[in-house]
Specification:
Blueprint (H helix, E strand, L loop, with lengths): L1 H16 L2 H15 L3 H23 L5 H10 L4 E12 L2 E11 L2 E7 L4 E5 L5 E9 L2 E8 L1 H18 L7 E7 L4 E5 L5 E3 L3 H6 L5 H4 L2 H11 E2 L2 E6 L4
Parallel strand pairs: 3-7, 4-8, 7-9
Antiparallel strand pairs: 1-2, 1-10, 1-11, 2-3, 4-5, 5-6
Helix pairs in contact: 2-3
Protein name: NERD domain-containing protein
Organism: Alkaliphilus pronyensis
Pfam families: NERD (PF08378)
Length: 241
Amino acid sequence: MLRSNKKINKALSAFLRDPLWLYLLGISFITFMIADESVEYMLASIFLMFSLIVIFYMYLNRAESLHKKIFMEFSSFGEEYTLLSSVTLENEGSKGYSDYIFISAKGIFNIRALDFQGVIKGFENDDVWSYMKITSLYDMAVKAIKNPIYYHQKTHNIIYDLLAKNNIRYIPIQSIIVIRDEDAEISTNSNIPIIKAKNLKKYISQYSNRQNMFSLLDEIVAIFNNETVFNYNFSGKAVGN
């Protein structure tokens, strides 16, 4: 609920700062005022509908959570898998966090969702990166942020160590970062893949099933159940491809 309210407040803030919606509604109001025939009223109604669609797309639809889009990708996955959400990991005093850990015969996917608008730039070994944030359609602000790759790689290493501690090795672990389909870009020299939300299913599907994974899936899931804290665990076979 807190995350949902934050998204709504962000959309309302952008809505109030950007005057474009006021222009669109103002023109719609004027067209209704000067219309005196049924055809003109019809045209005014069409323009009003167009304005409302534009406003929805530019402000409200952008507030749709990146996490919701990621769930839509997972829901169309046509193979058995286990999905852990909002995972906190700890191993020998080292802590990590993952938005999603996707476990299937294709391997283990450590997924971080970065929901932002603008451009994030930085080198893999730098502590501080730059974030050019889109504050409105006409304005941007640049600020310094902590290296998001560093913490994601740290989580990757914790996953590897947890499995090794339980005598599970040679299991493919792939860490990825998922961003918005539009208005978001990450420029870095890191080898960690940056994936648009709409391409998440396609990216995971390109990996082949590993025969050694089938016998280990339940054991791997049990390790995460015992060693981590997460919001929920979804297991099953998604409908569709």
